[in-house]
Write a structure and sequence with these properties.
Length: about 300
């Protein structure tokens, strides 16, 4: 998961503060943000997936669209859910008959994670508070993080994660909610501990619960270790969710990046995976970019 860019925050704040978008020269009146988005939604051509990959998208990448409108967009594009939403958005998703494919947990963060014993009490409290709500609101997955190394060895980090997560997993197992630890590249997320699949897999195998899996971010793992398809095959038993983006630049899934996604998607299907593949990239052209990503990953 990546933070919202400063540019997108400034753009959203400008629209929110004024309540309207300034008209172009010659326009007779200002067009409200809601009207502008509604026009965009209506212009989206319905897409019916032909393949078996269940696709989703991270909302933060398309921050200018109100969630209610973005639900309509996603449904027209054949996606059943949206990724990385906070609990205060879950009721709206239910209202729109959409799935929160990966929920955020207030109090959990990328740098402060389960690899430090001193973080456990606060994290356990946060997850035990949110897990029952996730079950109630039909959120199947909650994201979690290793935290930054800050001098912690790989071995100690693994053991600490196992200790902390085992405190939370009884609740996750009781409520049928899966915790997914995200794999991130430690070049972009400086010092992040869970930056290789093998390290995260060691935690999963020591825990031995179907309610703990890895969120395999293809963009991040291409940067850190490459060998995407063989890695997916080797660690299929511990991967529970996928993120996509183009490399380099975290842009569109197009011909200007080094990953070729159709065979990656077919490799995922070949493992028997039935979870979600969520798009998490900085779009070059918003909805056109999103539609292109959906079509690229819609393999049979």
């Amino acid at each position: 998961m990546s933070p919202i860019t400063r540019r997108s925050l400034l753009k959203t704040a400008a629209v929110s503060a004024t309540g309207f978008i300034l008209p172009s020269l010659g326009a007779s009146k200002a067009v409200s943000a809601a009207e502008k988005v509604a026009e965009t939604v209506e212009a989206v051509e319905t897409y019916v997936p032909k393949g078996k990959i269940r696709q989703s998208v991270s909302k933060w990448c398309f921050g200018k669209y109100p969630l209610d409108e973005f639900c309509r967009i996603c449904k027209k594009l054949g996606m059943p859910g949206i990724d990385l939403l906070d609990p205060d958005a879950w009721d709206l998703m239910l209202k729109n008959d959409m799935i929160v494919t990966m929920g955020n947990v207030p109090g959990a963060s990328i740098p402060v994670g389960f690899n430090k014993l001193q973080n456990h009490d606060k994290l356990v409290e946060a997850y035990e508070r949110v897990i029952p709500l996730a079950a109630e609101k039909k959120v199947p997955n909650l994201i979690c993080f290793s935290g930054n190394r800050e001098g912690t060895s790989d071995e100690e980090g693994i053991e600490n994660c196992v200790i902390g997560l085992k405190r939370v997993l009884p609740s996750a197992e009781k409520h049928g909610v899966t915790l997914q630890m995200e794999l991130l590249n430690a070049r972009g997320h400086k010092d992040y501990h869970c930056d290789h699949t093998k390290w995260g897999a060691e935690i999963a195998r020591k825990i031995g619960s179907e309610r703990f899996k890895l969120l395999y971010d293809i963009f991040h793992m291409q940067i850190m270790e490459g060998n995407i398809i063989d890695t997916i095959k080797e660690y299929k038993d511990v991967i529970g969710h996928y993120h996509t983006a183009g490399v380099p630049g975290r842009k569109d899934l197009d011909e200007h990046q080094e990953l070729f996604y159709p065979p990656i998607m077919r490799a995922i299907l070949a493992t028997g995976f039935t979870g979600f593949v969520a798009h998490e990239f900085h779009p070059k052209s918003d909805l056109q970019s999103l539609r292109q990503a959906i079509e690229v990953c819609d393999v049979t």
